[in-house]
Amino acid sequence: MSTDAELQQTIADMIDAERGILAADESTGTMTKRLEAVGVESTEENRRWYRSMLLSTPELGKYICGVIFYEETLGQRDDRGTLLSELAASQGVIPGIKVDQGKGPLPGAPGDMITYGLDGLGDRLARYKSQGARFAKWREVYPISDHNPTLLGLTANAEMLARYAAVCQDMGIVPIVEPEVLIDGSHSMDRAAEVNEQVWHAVFHALHRHGVALEHMILKPSMVTPGKEAGKASPDDVADRTLQVLRRTVPAAVPSINFLSGGQTPEEATANLNALNSRRDRTPWQLSMSFGRALQEPAMSAWAGNPQRREQAQQAFLKRARLNSLARRGAYSDDQEMTA
Ligand code: 5MM
Questions:
Q1: Is 319 a catalytic residue?
Q2: From the CB of 23, is ligand 1 less than 6 Å away?
Q3: Fewest CB atoms within 10 Å of the CB: 20, 30, 226, 317?
């Protein structure tokens, strides 16, 4: 199959009117925080057990079309010896891989961050592809302050995302491009909208410069919300503002926008996704999710390291996946939280 045909096939398999992507690509440091929060030691075995529990959830493939793995997970097997990537594929869930290698301060731009991992990316992608990965993900992180992101931060981060995406497409791997504008802080909705507009504009400008085929990528942005210390906006306000800025900056050729949850509660993220999809007639893209915390938090709390609670954890996980699938169609309402 040609590289183009491979990309096209993966996009066709991942763009689904009722399903979304599970972000299970927490690096060991992040996973350690998540596990310790529910009283579980972060050992390789606990991480393997938890992720194989998620992926073996019955009917997962009805609501989830892709899963983003961390490198460690690609080589792990479930209790029966099946590779977790094969377990996912057997449920109709396409395996993908996070390929950025963490972040640090951006020199020359105090307060801005930059992500590492371009060196040797082609070789790593070839290896991940041979292990079953068909798409990849790279995250750049943008804190908001009165003076961040700077112009340098906007251009340097956009350049990284575009270079990564171009390498992926050369290898027949669909890139998920994730510019995460952080929810941390007390900034207003207006300021969040202003920053997201600058970020998305810079990202698409860089993608164009690097010849990235927009038809063969997925955008994973933040929703436009006020900072978490500034109070909440209603789902209608989040949806209106997010779509206003997306329409100004994201070309119609992009097939799907899969939002991150970014510290929203599971219920908020679902309600916001639902409000976005209630306005679908006004958008050229699929509006879906690639949630990490908002899909996993209830499952992780239900499990809390007790293998006897496997079924309860899977039910909690499937409930969030199912409610987000309803939100994909604009068919979710909060009373379904009680009954689902
Ligand atoms: C699951 O967490 C991902 C990896 O984070 P680290 O590199 O910090 O370990 C992260 O990129 C995630 O995919 C996105 O932030 C979306 O997850 P949320 O929880 O924001 O929906």
A1: no
A2: yes
A3: 30
